[in-house]
Write a structure and sequence with these properties.
Layout: H1 3-17, E1 31-38, E2 42-44, E3 48-49, E4 54-60, E5 63-67, E6 73-77, E7 86-88, E8 95-96, E9 101-109, E10 112-121
Parallel strand pairs: 2-10
Antiparallel strand pairs: 1-4, 3-8, 4-5, 6-7, 6-9, 9-10
């Protein structure tokens, strides 16, 4: 193989490793899957579910790209048994969690949706419930 040909193969491999598509989009042009990564899964009543408590990623042709929270719609079902009764989670103020129980959070972006559950508990003697680490 000539030097120029080897250089071209190395450049193509470097672009592919960096997640770039030097020869157009392979495997589709738009987002193909939505992934939501929550930072919190347990809350106390009286706390707010904030959009900043999660990260949204979309896959494009095999690589993951972060999606701005301003471009997604975040909703919550107060009763996880009736997931069609969704309430909007405002971007700036979040959603006040007033009742205990399992809640369903739904994230929508470009016609795709992903969901996850959170647990809301009443505060116990002024301490937070859920999983936490206590250092000794």
């Amino acid at each position: 193989m000539s030097r120029l040909c080897r250089l071209f193969v190395i450049l193509i491999a470097a672009y592919a490793a960096a997640g770039c598509s030097p020869i157009g989009s392979i495997g589709g042009s738009g987002a193909t899957d939505l992934l939501v990564v929550p930072n919190r899964l347990t809350y106390n009543t009286g706390e707010r579910l904030m959009p900043s408590h999660l990260e949204v990623l979309a896959s494009y042709g095999g690589s993951l790209k972060s999606v701005s929270l301003g471009l997604v719609k975040i909703s919550i079902a107060e009763n996880s048994y009736t997931p069609n009764d969704l309430k909007n989670v405002p971007l700036n103020t979040g959603y006040l969690l007033e009742t205990a129980g399992i809640k369903l959070v739904v994230v929508e972006y470009l016609g795709m949706s992903a969901s996850y559950s959170i647990e809301v508990s009443p505060p116990e003697n002024g301490t937070k419930s859920g999983l936490y680490v206590e250092w000794e």
